[in-house]
Amino acid sequence: MTQTMDLFDVSGRVACITGASSGIGRRAAMTLAAAGAKIVGVARREAELDSLCDEIGPLASRVIADVTDRGGLEQLVKDVSAPFGPPDILLHAAGINPRQVADDVTTDAWDQTLHLNVTAPFFLSQAFVPSMKAKGWGRIVTFASLQSTRAFPGGIAYGTSKGAITQLTRAMAEAWSRYGITSNAIGPGFFPTELTATVFDDESRAARNAAQTCVGRNGRLEDIDGPVLFLCSKASAFVTGQVLMVDGGFTAK
Question: Which residue among 158, 190, 191, 230 is the active-site one?
Answer without folding.
Answer: 158
